[in-house]
Amino acid sequence: MTGKTLQEQETGRTAPREGRREMTRDVLLTIEGLSKSYPGVKANDDVSFQIGEGEVHALLGENGAGKSTLVKMIYGLVKPDEGRMTFRREEYTPSEPREARGLGVAMVFQHFSLFDALNVAENVALGMDNPPPMGELAGRIREVSEGYGLPLDPERLVGDLSAGERQRVEIIRCLLQDPKLLIMDEPTSVLTPQEVNILFGTLRQLAAEGTSILYISHKLEEIKALCDEATILRRGKVVGTCTPRDSTAREMAEMMVGAELNAPQRAPINPGPVALQVRNLSVPAPSAFGTSLREIGFEVRQGEVLGIGGVAGNGQDELLLALSGEVKTPRDCVQINGLDVGDLGPNERRKAGLCTAPEERLGHAAVPDLSLMENALLSGAVRKQLTKNGFIDWAGTRRFAEEVVKTFDVRTPGIGTAARALSGGNLQKFVLGREIMQEPEVIIVNQPTWGVDAAAAAFIRQALLNRAAKGAAVVVISQDIDEIMEIADRFAALNEGRLSAPVPTQGLTIDEIGLMLGGAHGMHEAEVHHVQA
Amino acid sequence: MFRLEKRPTPSTFWSWGTPVLAVILTMIAGGMLFAMLGKDPVLAIKAIFWEPLFGANASYFRPQLLVKAGPLILIAIGLSLGFRAAVWNIGAEGQYIMGALCGGSVALAAYPAESFLLFPAMIIAGAIGGFIWAMIPALLKIRFGTNEILVSLMLVYVAENILSTLAFGPLKNPEGFGFPGSRNLQQYPSAHNADLIANTGLHWGVVTAFLAVIGAYILLNRHILGFQISVAGQAPRAARFAGVNPNTLVAICLGISGALAGLAGIFEVAGPGGQITDSFNVGYGFTAIIVAFLGRLHPVGILLAGLLMALTYIGGEMAQLSLSLPLAAIQAFQGMLLFFLLALDLLTNFRIRIGGLI
């Protein structure tokens, strides 16, 4: 390499940096008046903004604000109804993702498209339009992954990887194509705080080298830490732009929600006797890629909220199933108010006072094609006494469903509406409402506000706190650390099927939580040092 | 360009409109088929749908309608419960045969004693025979996770072989001059499932079919078990959440459908069939699958679908006689009905839009 080319490279790398400071950098992607309608909803309405070269641009908005539709148009998955785009000053109308990739637009989706039974290199090859031979590809994966501080062994099976490592596979697949624009859709929702730091290191390095990044999120602190510019969407429209470094999280949140936000209020607690006791709970993994639960033990007192944090796929689903009774365990593993219920099914446990709300709303907590009224019967039959000698009391069921809809402000044309027709937030309010209004003495919820807009999330958290104030023991399983810190009295981390000893949330720092979540993964710390070095 | 768009909620209109449209399309496509065979399509369709009800010989054919519809409805009601729960009993034909054999054997063993207890005993034996035959796939599925579709279907052929072995062997009429087949139960008063009102075709099997329709309607609309059946079919995880034990449900659904098929078998062999022969079964168990789907797995729908299907059977025979249409053409005609129904089912959950990308 001659001195001249080295110099060129260096100027090439530093020019965007300089440009950033002077705000004169070249424009990479321009979006003008993009609109897209679906039946009954205008997903995007006259959206315009620009992304400069080497810029980290945030696309900020609540669930349903139209972020996904917008990036799908940029990535060629959806065709806009109106408006135009230019990419590197040329007309840009991708008709399919392959064309977008060919021009240098890459995307990391929120939900990974990986095959568990294949190894890393094979998965990367499957997502490439012209994959090189395997040996060469493995070498390049090593090279790129080390170059960007994302260590990854190309030979490992994807089924054995953590969520953060899986995301690396997707990122590296994109980086191998040398993108000009990298779109990241909610990339941190599955990561521990330490993994987030590693990811941010990589993204900053990419930006410094001139790659533009479109970063989609609703997490304001992240955007402040990472992004140069932000475009804020609400109901499909651009409602504002800002420079995140110069704005407060509160200002951005209020633009995003379009209203003032109230933090949940809670009364000081006075824990009563133990309501839920779990002892030495071990459950084998239900499938090859599931997680075994290992010797889980904890107790929750009346009026207390226990938050169980952890990155998805560390046994959250399995824990909920074992507690709800959908998976049976030895008799003395689970105790409700002193009663052994480990070998009882869901309805017997409901009778004993335990209600649960699973994570998957459609298909687990509710039947998609059945009406809200029928879905009210699904878990409410026992405690609300909606059957008599096996015959259904439809009048009583109707009253119960209407009560839930009214009390929990579920926006629906009526209780005859099919569950699948409701928005995620509304259905979640219904599901939570259905459980809470059965007045359980123990309530266990898994990801109660996942994919729910901020207003509904605040409502749900308040409802859980209110239930606790009435003396119920509440267990909140959540990936959202902020949520746990907001409502839980004690915190425990679930990692690879093991639960750490619960500690009081008061005074706990994000770093301490991160280390608890990392648990047995000693390597996360090492990686953090690697990136910082 | 056509494209499909998922409806937010299933369309009630199309849920009931598709069977009607399927019948109309079957008439059109069937008419084309008959025309290609060189027959007058209008006459053929009229022979199938009109003559049995209002034609010159309708007084003979109308009772036949109930005789044919009875077993179809009875079997289809049982199957529909399983199909709603995603438990696929394809072997009703075998359960029907075993019901006829068990119930018929009771009668033949008692011959020639006369007792009012004999007929109930035969009915119970028939139900038990079908029930046990259906429990084989149920238990194998529960214990070993075998596929009930394959096992139940294969057991049809086992049942057919048992039937011919018995018809030519132990159950053969000792006074039958060497002809195959058992004694004729129609000539054995205590065992005969006669018309309750002469020449109406209304025998105990038809009554039982109507009772099954009412029972299934109540079960599905008013009882928690019916609710659990629907939930299990639509969302198995939600069913577990609601406290449903999937294994119990498999046993219940297969058990009920087997018992009802067995009942249909004994009512048939003691009534319109009369004799246990190696060919007394005419495929009711398979046709009932079409009836169940044609009736939207809904009891009242099945009642109507059973009558319609019976009509195509009788009318088909009529068309064979009067227009010398081949049997295969009639069977293809019946198959079309299911084909169009399943194809049009799409409209219940999707609407068709023309033009435009996603």
UniProtKB/TrEMBL annotation, chain B:
CDD domains: TM_PBP1_transp_TpRbsC_like. InterPro entries: ABC_transp_permease. The keyword Hydrolase does not apply. It comes from Albidovulum salinarum. This is ABC transporter permease. It comes from the Bacteria. The chain crosses the membrane at residues 12-37, 69-87, 94-111, 117-140, 149-171, 202-220, 249-270, 282-311, 323-344. Keywords: Cell membrane, Membrane, Transmembrane, Transmembrane helix. It is found in: Cell membrane. The keyword Transmembrane applies. It is a multi-pass membrane protein.
